[in-house]
Write a structure and sequence with these properties.
Blueprint: H1 2-37, H2 39-43, H3 52-60, H4 64-68, H5 72-83, H6 89-101, H7 108-143, H8 158-168, H9 177-183, E1 192-193, E2 196-197, H10 209-225, H11 227-239
Antiparallel strand pairs: 1-2
Length: 246
């Protein structure tokens, strides 16, 4: 009985994983097109490459010049409507126009091709996001029949909990926490020589890539929702000078 329940849930959570990976790749494709059309925006660290606002701007403005020299008041209203979470849309609008003005200009024929490719990419991202929502609903429905306590942790919702439980199955099949970590590909190689021990070593990828994804996403969600875990994350972040988040 349990095996069938876990397998049914696993089918859904793995399908969701694959769609999320496709969405990640498509966002990278869109970022590449954004760099071609509006290099200044793509290179500005304060402008999210695949945010709803950026996508809406690329759909509305045919060329970087149209964006760079658009009426500022109209642009502020547009950003306020599409973003809905900017504390000061006027500041954001000015930053976007500055980035657009600093972008290089494409020949008309190349710009038209980029717009067409970008439109396909945007449609693909929207489709993938809809698929994720459909799978999330199916996962939550299937998850109801499996008792668990993971969802009591702030930040770990039903989908992440389902992904973890679907891959673990009966936890009694693991002899220790270390064996669970190994199964999740969350162990590192050691590089020692005398008293020296390297800080940066490679992950040992010999476990379950699906299982690795869900605990990592869940942990990242917890540190955003729980102040104590966020404090711990910040402390660890400051301990190293590269690969901080990883």
């Amino acid at each position: 009985m349990d095996d069938y329940r876990y397998k049914s849930l696993q089918t859904l959570t793995r399908a969701r994983f694959d769609v999320v990976q496709n969405l990640t790749r498509e966002k990278q494709h869109f970022a590449n097109y954004l760099f071609l059309k509006c290099s200044g925006m793509a290179q500005d660290k304060d402008i999210a490459n695949s945010s709803a606002t950026t996508i809406a701007l690329m759909e509305r403005f045919e060329t970087v010049n149209d964006l760079a020299y658009a009426d500022l008041d109209d642009l502020i209203r547009f950003i306020d409507e599409t973003g809905r979470n900017f504390a000061d849309p006027a500041v954001k609008a000015k930053a976007i126009q500055a980035a657009a003005r600093n972008s290089y200009r494409l020949p008309v024929t190349v710009n038209n091709s980029v717009n067409q490719a970008m439109a396909v990419s945007i449609a693909t991202m929207r489709t993938l996001k809809k698929q994720i929502k459909v799978l999330d609903k199916a996962i939550e429905q299937q998850f109801k029949i499996i008792p668990n306590t993971l969802t009591s942790i702030p930040g770990i919702g039903k989908v992440y909990s389902a992904g973890i439980i679907a891959e673990i199955g009966d936890v009694r099949r693991f002899s220790s926490q270390a064996s669970v970590a190994k199964y999740a590909e969350l162990i590192w190689t050691q590089h020692q020589s005398g008293d020296f021990e390297a800080q940066h070593t490679k992950l040992i990828k010999s476990g379950n890539r699906y299982f690795r994804y869900y605990p990592l996403e869940a942990a990242n969600s917890v540190r955003r929702c729980d102040s104590e875990f966020r404090r711990y994350y910040d402390l660890k972040y400051k301990e190293v000078n590269k690969f901080q988040h990883k």
